[in-house]
Write a structure and sequence with these properties.
heterodimer; A: about 325 residues; alpha/beta; Rossmann fold; Dihydrodipicolinate Reductase, domain 2; seven-stranded mixed beta sheet; six-stranded parallel beta sheet; about 35% helix; about 25% strand; B: about 325 residues; 15 strands; Gfo/Idh/MocA family oxidoreductase (chain B); Gfo/Idh/MocA-like_OxRdtase_N (chain B); Gfo/Idh/MocA_Oxidoreductases (chain B)
């Protein structure tokens, strides 16, 4: 199987490329990027040809692409890839508007290609285990969930709304909302959010607390803030606490770590857990190979984006927003 | 010498009575509790007398200067009023009352009767919280953008199971995370808007859990979590500022852990963690209140602060009931 990467704007392109390199029978054949410096550097690192025009990459005999462009370009890149008959693994958030996401989903279906949203956290062994425990009824009936997906301000295009579609809220809402939906097989009915810009020098939303009501009667909150500073031991966190009638589950995806105290950097956490990104890529490749439905769909990506967009609307109106 | 009468021999009454018993300038003159066994037990432990009723105590005791009300919340108004009528200074457990109007009444009444009123928002006397506030004020982490707190444990059991009656206790929002509301207000000023979700009204018996979002007038966002659905008590706090983060988690700070080796093979022993201080926060709080009476000082936490804390908690409860944000005026 042959794969291409469209844009390395998102740093995950690197870990996905590494994952591809480790898989048998899969070959990365090219990197396309409109930014020649950035794209050439990546192509050189991966040891593959560089394409300044992604259409040329799509014109080759590749089977699938990984879209890791700026959020606002996911739509264009996905539609073009689908038109060329290539299967797509698209970085999250799937799109910056619900309409764009819907168009991507519809067109991929029409073209008969797979559209998978990149939610690697679903492949974290502790997350997989937590879902198992929930399904086995270990905590009884879920009553509430408290989540965090905080991070450092990534800077660059992430803080340019034209390219990113927004700041912390669109960047860090989707992962944990996806997990909540996945764990409970239920959709978000209503969203309330307080959103602000408190940590950055650029005027972009960098903190937010979302409160959600799910269709199954569970309520949840999510802290999506870019509130981790330089001195914090790692770039961010993914945590969930599930409150059930029979018990609780605390999940901390970054807790398989060493405390490293260096004179240069102070305390830093070095992770020794399994690599989630490689499992995501492996899963996508398997779906393409076996021509089966992706494990994480475009709809999954859209549902998560909807919540982030509703959070912006709620913060603006200072009222809860009803999704369904 | 201050003569203190403690009303209520429950969890807080016990802690308060023991604190007074250890103070040099205080004489614990009695414990009032309708439960004779519990009342006698605590009285014996703190070397004082037990009385079955407030009236009996006031009739028999030669001197009472301060009345400490450690009763269920719904009884605060009645007993604070009686104490004020008798011209005694009052120390009252938090929450001051079930709603803002009741709290307002209590504060105004004490003022009119010219007695001092202190409310036990003890979190302000926990050194870890006090130190955090000091660090924020010193600019150690810059302007705080997001604050998160947690407070919780198992569902409390008490006399008459009064915590389980929402009308009497106001649920954990009014009873427990009011500590965090008061602490955050102490650090960051008044709250503008409150939005909350909780288990109240969702049909889960003897279980409570609430997630409250506060927007402060200074723009800060706070996430306050309260639980009576966890095992083992813990409190946590994280203040994320532009220049740094302050984090505290009581379940991780264990300067001392004593473990009893299990007698049975294959069974684990019970670990009992402690975080001892020369003076515990309750002792410091009550000592401070006594000093305020002695020297006619403004306390670290005023009765007005206690009214504001009730107001925030009540707004959270309204938000839980209506599903809408509540703006404070």
């Amino acid at each position: 199987m042959k794969l291409g990467i469209i844009s390395v704007a998102h740093m995950h392109a690197y870990s996905y490329a590494n994952a591809v390199a480790k898989l048998d029978g899969v070959q990365l054949v090219g990197v396309a990027d409109e930014d020649e410096v950035r794209g050439k550097a990546a192509a050189e690192t991966f040891g593959v040809p560089f394409f300044s025009d992604y259409h040329e990459l799509l014109a080759t005999d590749i089977d699938a692409v990984i879209v890791t462009s700026e959020n606002a370009k996911h739509q264009e890149h996905t539609l073009a890839s689908a038109k060329a008959g290539k299967h797509i693994l698209c970085e999250k958030p799937l799109a910056t508007t619900a309409e764009a996401a819907q168009e991507m989903i519809d067109f991929c279906r029409e073209q008969g290609v797979i559209l998978q949203t990149a939610f690697p956290v679903r492949f974290h062994p502790a997350v997989v285990r937590a879902k198992q425990l929930v399904e086995q009824g270990k905590v009884g009936r879920i009553m509430a969930i408290r989540g965090t997906n905080r991070g450092q301000n990534p800077g660059g295009w992430f803080v340019d709304p034209e390219k990113s579609g927004g700041g912390a809220v669109i960047d860090h809402t989707v992962h944990v909302v996806d997990l909540m939906r996945w764990f409970m097989d239920s959709e978000v009915r209503e969203v309330y959010a307080e959103v602000d810009s408190k940590f950055s020098d650029t005027p972009i939303d960098d903190c937010g607390i979302l409160t959600m009501e799910f269709e199954n009667g569970v309520f949840a909150t999510l802290d999506c803030s870019w509130s981790r500073n330089k001195a914090f031991p790692t770039w961010g966190d993914v945590t969930m606490e599930i409150i059930g009638t029979e018990g609780t589950i605390s999940l901390d995806a970054f807790s398989q770590k060493l405390d490293v105290y260096s004179n240069e950097k102070g305390l830093k956490w070095v992770n020794w857990g399994d690599d989630m990104d490689s499992q995501l890529v492996k899963d996508f490749v398997t779906s393409v190979r076996e021509k089966k439905a992706p494990s994480i769909t475009g709809e999954d990506g859209l549902r998560a984006v909807e919540v982030a967009l509703a959070a912006y609307q709620s913060a603006e109106q200072k009222q809860p927003v009803v999704l369904r | 010498m201050h003569h203190v009468l403690v009303i209520g021999a429950g969890t807080m009454g016990t802690v308060h009575a023991k604190s007074y018993a250890a103070m040099e300038n205080v004489k614990l003159v009695g414990i009032v509790d309708i439960r004779s066994e519990r009342g006698k037990e605590l009285a014996a432990e703190t070397k004082t007398e037990w009385f079955e009723s407030y009236e009996e105590a006031m009739e028999k005791l030669a001197q009472v200067d301060i009345i400490d009300v450690c009763l269920p919340t719904y009884l605060h108004k009645t007993y604070v009023k009686r104490a004020a009528d008798a011209g005694k200074h009052v120390i009252c457990e938090k929450p001051l009352a079930r709603d803002k109007e009741e709290a307002r009444f209590i504060v105004d009444y004490c003022r009119e009767q010219n007695v001092k009123l202190f409310v036990g928002h003890v979190l302000r006397f926990f050194p870890e919280y006090e130190k955090s506030r000091q660090l924020v004020n010193d600019g150690a982490i810059g302007n705080v953008g997001v604050a998160r707190t947690f407070r919780g444990g198992i569902f409390p059991t008490a006399w008459n199971d009064w915590y389980a009656d929402y009308k009497n206790s106001g649920s954990l929002v009014l009873d427990m995370i009011i500590h965090d509301f008061d602490f955050l207000r102490w650090c960051f000023g008044d709250v503008e808007r409150v939005y909350a979700k909780g288990l109240l009204g969702r049909g889960f018996a003897r279980m409570d859990y609430a997630l409250v979002t506060l927007r402060f007038k200074n723009g800060m966002i706070a996430h306050v979590e309260g639980s009576w659905a966890h095992e083992g008590f813990a409190m946590k706090m994280e203040l994320a500022g532009k220049e740094g983060i302050i984090a505290y988690d009581s379940s991780k700070e264990k300067p001392l852990v004593a473990v009893n080796r299990s007698k049975q093979a294959g069974m684990s022993g019970v670990a009992v963690p402690e975080s001892p201080l020369r003076e515990n926060p309750y002792f410091r709080e009550l000592k401070h209140f006594i000093e305020c009476i002695d020297r006619d000082l403004e306390p670290l936490v005023t009765a007005e602060d206690a009214v504001k804390a009730v107001e925030i908690a009540r707004a959270a409860l309204v938000s839980i009931e209506t599903g809408k944000p509540v703006t404070l005026v």
